[in-house]
Amino acid sequence: MRERDLWYKRAVMYALDVETFQDSNDDGIGDFQGLIGRLDYLATLGISCIWLLPFYPSPNRDNGYDVMDYYNVDSRLGTLGDFAAFIHEAKERGIRVLVDLVVNHTSDQHPWFQQARHHKNSKYYDYYVWSKEKPKEPIAQPAFAGEQAGIWSYDEIAKEYYLHRFYSHQPDLNLSNSEVRKEIHHIMGFWLALGVSGFRLDAAHILVQSDRDSDSDVYMGFIEDMREFISMHSRDAILLAEASGPPEVVGKFFKGKDRMHMMFNFLLNQHLFLGLAQKKGTAIAEGLRILPGKAYTSQWLNFLRHHDELNLEDLKKEEQQDVFEKFAPEENMRIFERGIRRRLAPMLHGDRHRIELAYSLLFSLPGTPVIQYGAEIGMGDDLSLPERNSVRTVMQWSPEENAGFSDAPPVQWPRPVIDKGDFAYQHVNVWGQQRQTNSLLNWMERVIRLRRQCPELGDGKCDIIETGNEQVFAHSCGLQYTLIAVHNMGETACTVTIPDLIEQDATILEVFSNNNYELPQQGQVKLDPYAYRWFRLHPKNKAKENL
Ligand code: NOJ
């Protein structure tokens, strides 16, 4: 890839689910036309890439991750024509679109599975993984502890067991079958031809595991084929892996130049929450230190929360406990024995200082940031909803009845709006925050704007700066300019020395902070409780350029 094609290193991403974003035809379900109507909002928020959650025809038993047809749009959300119009309108505004590629499994309602279970002689039988007897020692554990009894279920029609790493209604595809691999390439080619800028490869770490062999490298060749396919069919489309696990597992996805362009940074995500819970900067430094190496063209995708649980599985038991105690003290806030089913703002009790601290970290850490729809206004969660639906409520646009989401009665909606407590749409909504100068939404627009002006954060060389104070995290990112960010995770004010700010030949500009501070003297940086300060060093003769 040429330098200018590395757009994903400079991107600010926004994840959304069409069905909960904006309804345009009053049937109570968000749709592509509704989304098109909100593109100006997204463009002026400043994001440059949308990650669209699955919108394919689906029985919707796993929020659309149970696909019934890979080549279409669910009729509740619109048509393929609406999709094409959406891509066109997004491009007009300089916004790219990534879509989910869910090929670890299909829905059990997919015609392939229906053919397979009824006709063992059909080619579709080999699209799935079958066993006459129930395997005694399955090589993998269910992905959702406490929700699934196991990874093999009996099919009454086929009279055999089939493999499913996720729910029993999601049979796993058989990736050792070359026909299945061909089919996946077809699917990719189809959506690339419609103008998408790449794919989020769902459950990538599970996809590469063989059902019969514990060697997780078995299907890495398949990942490399996908990379080759995408490079041959598009100048700049990318593959983003949803791969979690310890450094040695996720590191494989970044090996060399021919695997993933991007990967969700689950390891840093967990350490960010550990740092917020323990009020320590050292946890974040550790989260960066353990990351596996990557090729120059690869990039981490940093996040705080998204549509799934906050997964804490890579922290030590006592660290997990710290995070649970601080952010999910009640049993109902936890899920799958390893996670938290809450949004960020309620986890931080709506404390604006801490919310800004968390997002200032997200936007300044090395990598590309992604936020979930509604994060920009500090939307809350609804713990009365089952499972992960707690964090998937409809977008809160205005204080009017139905929050501006739909004119249909709420019983017809995919999920309700939050209408009680501190995060109710009557107080937390886009319209209200656009009118308030000091709103979180206006703050978010500022940080996104600044982030996009500082390519060193996405593409620069990152160094952790030792401050000798464990509640502080400081780092620098250098490209053409150097940005130094200092964060105080603690609840007490402090002053630290940042040697890099005793620079002689550069002008120090404070470009973002939680307060109006004096410029540091002799590298002494004063910090309020939960403070953040970003400095940019400009070589003296270039100080007027670029800002
Ligand atoms: C990963 C998705 O993020 C999650 O929401 C889904 O439940 C699983 N894949 C299984 O499809």
List keywords for this structure.
547 residues; alpha/beta; TIM Barrel; Oligo-1,6-glucosidase, domain 2; eight-stranded parallel β-barrel; 16 helices; 27% helix
How would you describe what is shown here?
This protein folds into three domains: 3-103 and 178-451, Glycosidases (TIM Barrel, Alpha-Beta Barrel); 111-163, Oligo-1,6-glucosidase, Domain 2 (Oligo-1,6-glucosidase, domain 2); 461-542, Golgi alpha-mannosidase II (Immunoglobulin-like, Sandwich). It has 16 helices and 21 strands. By secondary structure, the chain is of the alpha/beta class. Helix 9 crosses helix 11 (317-327). 27% of the residues lie in helices and 17% in strands. It starts with 12 loop residues before the first strand and ends in an 8-residue tail after the last strand. The strands form five sheets. An eight-stranded parallel β-barrel has the order 1-2-3-7-8-9-10-14, surrounded by four helices. Bound molecules: 1-deoxynojirimycin. 1-deoxynojirimycin is lined by residues 62-63, 65, 166, 202-203, 242, 308. Residues 18-435 form the Glycosyl hydrolase family 13 catalytic domain.
Summarize model confidence as the mean pLDDT: 95
- Which spans have pLDDT < 50 for at least 5 consecutive residues? none
CATH level-two architecture of the largest domain:
Alpha-Beta Barrel
Number of helices: 16
Ends: how far apart?
Answer: 29 Å
Give the domain tally.
Answer: 3
Protein structure class: alpha/beta
Spatial shape: globular
Q: How many strand elements?
A: 21
* Rg measurement, Å: 23 Å
Q: What would CATH call the homologous superfamily of the largest domain? A: Glycosidases
The share of residues in extended strands comes to 15-25%
* Largest sheet properties: 8 strands, parallel, barrel
Protein name: Alpha-amylase family protein
Pfam family, one: Alpha-amylase
InterPro entries: GH, GH13_cat_dom, Glyco_hydro_b, O16G_dom_2
Domain Glycosyl hydrolase family 13 catalytic: 18-435
